[in-house]
Fold this sequence. Notes:
Elements: H1 3-9, E1 12-17, H2 23-32, E2 36-40, H3 48-56, E3 61-64, E4 67-68, H4 74-87, E5 92-97, H5 110-123, E6 131-133, H6 138-147, E7 150-151, H7 158-168, E8 173-174, E9 177-182, H8 186-198, H9 205-213, H10 218-221, H11 227-233, E10 234-237, H12 239-251, E11 257-261, H13 269-277
Parallel strand pairs: 1-2, 1-11, 2-3, 3-5, 4-5, 5-6, 6-7, 7-8, 9-10, 9-11
Helix pairs in contact: 2-3, 2-13, 4-5, 5-6, 7-12, 8-11
Amino acid sequence: MADLARDRLGRFGVWRRSSDVTPDLAVGLERLGYGTLWLGGSPAADLRVVDDLLDATTTLTLATGIVNIWNSEARQVARSFARIDTRRPGRFLLGVGAGHREATREYSSPYETLRSYVDVLRTEGVPAESLVLAALGPRVLRLAAERTAGAHPYLVPPEHTRRAREIMGRGALLAPEQKVVVEADPERARAIARPAVQNPYLGLTNYTNNLRRLGWGDDDLADGGSDALIDALVAHGPVDRVAARLTEHLDAGADHVAVQLLTRDDEDVLDTFEALAGPLHLRPTPRS
């Protein structure tokens, strides 16, 4: 279902916590040519945050990255999807996932629970082409390819994208998230990047297990992450270098890359996304 990426997602999108997204930001990203806005931070099952953003824009796809299966009952999520898709057909992609063992008291048999959750969503009318899974390991990547449009891996370097494409095959959608810092000085860039990686991700076993599968060892995972690990997980440098790193995911087999921008406190998010738009070969819409 890689056609989904070409037709609805575009090559590049933006990942941002739903609490940090406004209609004005969505309009700005659409104008700059980003194809999709991914809403992170486990949006609530009613998905009301999606409605205002779709109403404010005309072509932008909205996606969840992701709805947490432990916090959001599947039938309610399916009803929310139906409401959104009826009002704005084809502009919403539902991403769901199992979250983290450390953050969920009910966490048990995550693979089986996720598979059952997908079965309920599909039975309740959510089409496979409008559904993706948060997936890191081989079993969930295969489930994503078999039962949904594909996978939305988080906190992964291009090497994971290459391995994921091999596991999932050519037909499934692969849309990884990639963190970036637009900063030419490596030390200043790592000072922004390291806290965002260390807390919470280097304390969550699903991410550390995935990094170990990719060959990173205990020394890399300790003390906030080695410089090499931070450089692999957070693309940094001037805009041209960051854009080249993002494109590595496409070269490794991704259909779409969700860009999560990490910033200094004084940095204007939309200005930085505008600076990236040129090197990413996006097609901005002229201001009216």
